[in-house]
Write a sequence for this structure.
């Protein structure tokens, strides 16, 4: 009996503790393995397409190169897991915990990570196109040069996150918290903005300002006083109107601005 069949047989007999199991390169398509303990397990390059892995424990597990397309990882614990170069496109990771997980090179196109926790995770240079991060905790996360175009980051916490040169075009950033985040060079074209975020508005103005020191100072005012749209709209400043029009020009056509 191969290891895959042995695992499935033991699971069918109500065994749930598979900590440290080694199944690199295994094939486990559309299997039901929810609530199992796979801590410290080796699932590198394993095919887990469409499987139900909800509420599983993958603490410090090796899932590098694994195919997890369309898998159900709702409420899974993936703390410090190795997911480098894994494919989670279309996966359901609602409420999953990925604290300090290694996620470089991962593909999460269209995945649902709403309410997930990814504190201090590394998502740099990853393809997160159309991923759902609504209400997720992404503080201290490295999202530099990540593709977040058309992603849903509404209500997400990105406190002190690194979004240097990330692509947020057409993304939904309503009510997202970017306090202390690094947004240098981020692409915010056609984005639905959080108009109360000093970081977002200041970055838009800073990019449009170029080498113009006076326009750059307008961005610094927003950051200095921790203020957003309402402050800018009432600010007695010769460039305030320019700043307002600059923000309007880059925002999504669906953006609602206060009257």
């Amino acid at each position: 009996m191969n290891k895959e069949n042995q695992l499935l047989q033991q699971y069918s007999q109500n065994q749930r503790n598979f900590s440290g199991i080694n199944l690199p390169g295994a094939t486990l398509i559309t299997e039901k393995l929810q609530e199992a303990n796979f801590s410290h397990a080796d699932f590198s390059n394993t095919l887990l397409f469409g499987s139900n892995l909800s509420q599983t424990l993958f603490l410090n597990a090796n899932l590098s190169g694994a195919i997890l397309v369309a898998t159900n990882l709702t409420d899974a614990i993936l703390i410090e897991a190795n997911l480098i170069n894994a494919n989670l496109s279309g996966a359901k990771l609602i409420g999953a915990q990925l604290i300090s997980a290694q996620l470089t090179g991962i593909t999460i196109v269209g995945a649902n990570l709403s309410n997930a926790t990814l504190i201090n995770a590394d998502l740099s240079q990853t393809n997160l196109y159309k991923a759902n991060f609504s209400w997720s905790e992404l503080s201290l996360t490295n999202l530099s040069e990540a593709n977040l175009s058309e992603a849903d980051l509404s209500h997400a916490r990105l406190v002190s996150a690194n979004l240097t040169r990330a692509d947020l075009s057409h993304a939904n950033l309503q009510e997202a918290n970017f306090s202390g985040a690094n947004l240098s060079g981020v692409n915010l074209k056609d984005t639905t903005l959080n108009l109360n975020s000093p970081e977002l508005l200041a970055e838009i103005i800073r990019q449009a300002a170029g080498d113009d020191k006076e326009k750059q100072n307008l961005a610094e005012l927003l950051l200095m006083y921790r203020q957003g749209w309402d402050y800018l709209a009432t600010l007695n400043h010769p460039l305030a109107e320019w700043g307002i029009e600059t923000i309007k020009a880059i925002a999504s056509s669906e953006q609602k601005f206060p009257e």
About this structure: Helices lie at 3-12, 198-209, 213-224, 229-234, 240-250. The radius of gyration is 21 Å. The longest helix spans residues 198-209. The chain has five helices and no strands.
